[in-house]
Design brief:
116 residues; mainly alpha; 4 helices; 79% helix; 0% strand
């Protein structure tokens, strides 16, 4: 997601030098880049949470949030093939649920650490 920020920031810094079509090209480029990166999160969240379903590695609610996040990111990856509006929303919702998953996983790990 840092790639998205650097592309958008570069366009913002050079906005006086760019015409509207060039600025739009970079905006679409950022959307496609983020959507393609979401595919890696689908694999990570899917594998981790399917393993958690099987082995009870994480609390059930954390696993469900992770699977929901993976599903939202999966829908967001369609944004790599189109510049239609609804797909970035799925990426945003996937990101929010991913952050909840990270927080839940971190709290679980903190609580279950062996104090030796």
């Amino acid at each position: 997601f840092a790639m998205w920020n650097t592309i958008v920031a570069t366009v913002a810094l050079q906005v006086e030098e760019l015409d509207a079509d060039t600025a739009k090209l970079f905006y679409v480029l950022t959307g496609v880049t983020v959507a393609a990166a979401a595919g890696f999160l689908v694999v990570h969240l899917g594998a981790t949470n399917l393993l958690s379903l099987r082995s009870e590695l994480l609390p059930r609610w954390v696993t469900i949030v992770g699977l929901i996040s993976a599903a939202l990111f999966l829908i967001a990856t369609i944004g790599a093939m189109t510049d239609k509006d609804p797909f970035p929303l799925f990426g945003l919702l996937g990101f929010i649920t991913w952050m909840i998953w990270v927080l839940g996983t971190s709290i679980h790990m903190w609580r279950t650490v062996d104090a030796s």
